[in-house]
Amino acid sequence: MNTSDGLTQLRRRVEELERSEARYRGIFESSPISLWEEDWSAVRQHLDRIIASGVTDLDAHFRAHIDDVFTGIGLVKILDVNKATLELCHAESKDQILAGLSVIFVEAAVVTFRHELVALGNGATSFEEETFISTLDGERRTVTLRLAMSAGAEQTWERCFVSLLDITERKRAEEALRQSKEETIRAQMTMLAQLSTPVIPISDDVIVMPLIGALDRARMQQATGALLDELQRRQARVAILDITGVPGMDAEATHGILQAASAVRLLGAKVVLTGIRAEVARCLVELGSDLPAIVTRGTLQAGIAYAMQGGAGAR
């Protein structure tokens, strides 16, 4: 090969590299995702010095020596950013961003940078984490950060690429959906509670609350509140509490029933307790309750018959 042919091949190779670089720049600039080209070689040297000093647990070291994290932040050299980065950061020119990472950092981003240092210091060549940045006018944005060392720069870290995917609106939508679900769940729980303690009007003067299922303190409080509200709203004279559907009555449940009965009497109405079984009778006696003040019947039908046949005669 003569000198002329060698120069021709070299020129072609240079032209190919220039075209390749031009294609890369075109892709870099036109990407809709924020892209950063950075030089981390000084950060690598900073980490090497820390490791050489005998540090074996980088995470513990950086937690205890936050100044070393901020030193690392200051050592990152931003080589270039694309148009999407200017839009994300609300910057008018690249110079505003090339000044350094501190212009967009918030406290959460410092934590993310610490995680980056630990990962890279332990041998990783890429990193990804959800974090936050601040725009130049102070708006907080949620982003997914991805960092990768360029091919051939895995040892020196002289060239790496960072992408920031803005997920702020997605996170806001997720939070709104979460709150909506919580509100729906609360509404459903309220509805279920109301369904589990319905108040049924038998006549203008008589209402019935059939209790079904296990009774705990919270449910008895809810049931008592619903019963008193309906009693006051309808100005009923008799309230029937039916416990036929309650599988078991312990002392706590019986005490709750008695408290509900006492509250009803304070509003001037009579109380009829139906569905009485042996264990309930024993609990009533053991608690020393004021049995004469409570009308008891074995079945709901008997309780309704009592109320309709004159049990509601007087307050």
Descriptive overview:
InterPro entries: Bact_StressResp_Reg, PAS-assoc_C, PAS-like_dom_sf, STAS_dom, STAS_dom_sf. This is STAS domain-containing protein. It comes from Sorangium cellulosum. The relative contact order is 0.08. This protein has helices spanning 3-30, 41-52, 58-64, 66-75, 83-89, 94-98, 107-121, 168-196, 217-234, 251-266, 278-286, 300-311; strands at 34-39, 77-81, 126-134, 140-149, 160-166, 200-201, 206-212, 238-245, 270-274, 295-297. The N and C termini lie far apart (121 Å). Strands 2-1-5-4-3 form a five-stranded antiparallel beta sheet, sandwiched between helices. A five-stranded mixed beta sheet has the order 6-7-8-9-10, with helices on both faces. The model has no long low-confidence stretch (mean pLDDT 86). By secondary structure, the chain is of the alpha/beta class.
Q: How much helix, percentage-wise, in residues? A: 40-55%
CATH topology of the largest domain: Beta-Lactamase
Distance between the termini: 121 Å
- Sheet with most strands: strand arrangement: 2-1-5-4-3
Number of helices: 12
Shape: elongated
Order of helices and strands: HEHHHEHHHEEEHEEHEHEHEH
Task: Quickly give the structural class.
Answer: alpha/beta
- In the predicted model, the low-confidence regions spanning at least 5 consecutive residues are none
Major sheet, described briefly? 5 strands, antiparallel
CATH class membership of the largest domain: Alpha Beta
- How many beta-strand runs? 10
